[in-house]
Amino acid sequence: MITIHDKNFVPYISETEIKEKVKKIARQISDDYRGLKPLFVAILNGAFMFASDLFKELDIEAEIAFIKLASYKGTTSTGKVLTAIGLDADIHNRHVVIIEDIVDTGKTLHTFLPTLEHSQPKSLKLVTLLHKPEATVHPIAIDYLCFIIPNKFVVGYGLDYDGLGRNLKEIYQLEG
Ligand code: IMP
Ligand code: MG
After folding, report:
1. Pocket flag, ligand 1, residue 105 (CB < 6 Å)
2. Domain map (residue ranges) of the chain
3. Of residues 22, 37, 31, the one with CA closest to residue 128
4. Which of 119, 128, 133, 176 has the fewest CB atoms within 10 Å, i.e. the most exposed one?
């Protein structure tokens, strides 16, 4: 068991399990995108470790870009607006694969995907390390998924609890 800030976490998905699954998904993606020179777009901060390991395992020609999503209160009644900081690669007419750490409520991607679609990529797919189906508010089509998990808070392998825990090699789950 480990403690981060005020909470206890127990080991949940081992480093070995993660490595094996990342390799498997990377093989699938390589087979699906061979010759298409896809552009991977990793969403920071959470996806940095997954993106790095996944990208290393690809055996095709591919590019990667990193973006950060900043939310701010808009003046419209819908409230929050998401903007992508750092997407300098032109996604028009490209085969784009978004890399996420976790699809939880689906709110982030529900807001952000239309922005990308607006730039008319040739195709747009999503790979995520984790998915909590029980937490879904906005259903998101996930094309490549490593692990389905219950609706419990997790840390490690890039995911944080209030800034800490990202460096853990395995994934931990909130105790209890
Ligand atoms: P969304 O609810 O699908 O929009 O997810 C928003 C973001 O919340 C994710 O990209 C993660 O960065 C973060 N998040 C959701 N669930 C967890 C968790 O269990 N641990 C750490 N971060 C999480
Ligand atoms: Mg995230």
Report:
1. yes
2. 16-149
3. 22
4. 176
Q: Which CATH entry fits the domain spanning 16-149: 3.40.190.10, 2.60.40.420, 2.60.40.1180, 3.40.50.2020?
A: 3.40.50.2020
3-state secondary structure (DSSP) of residue 159: strand
Active site residue 162: no
CA of 36 to the centre of ligand 2 (A): 26
Show pLDDT as tens, one digit a residue, over the chain (176 residues): 999 999 999 999 999 999 999 999 999 999 999 999 999 999 999 999 999 999 999 999 999 999 998 766 544 445 465 777 878 778 999 999 999 999 999 999 998 999 899 999 999 999 999 999 999 999 999 999 999 999 999 999 999 999 999 999 999 999 98
Angle at 43 between CA 66 and CA 70, to 5 degrees: 100
pTM exceeding 0.85? yes
In the set 104, 143, 160, 162, the catalytic residue is: 104
Among all bound ligands, the one having the nearest atom to the CA of 112 is 1
- Does ligand 1 come within 6 angstroms of the Cβ of 151? no
Find out whether the beta carbon of 154 lies less than 6 Å from any atom of ligand 1: yes
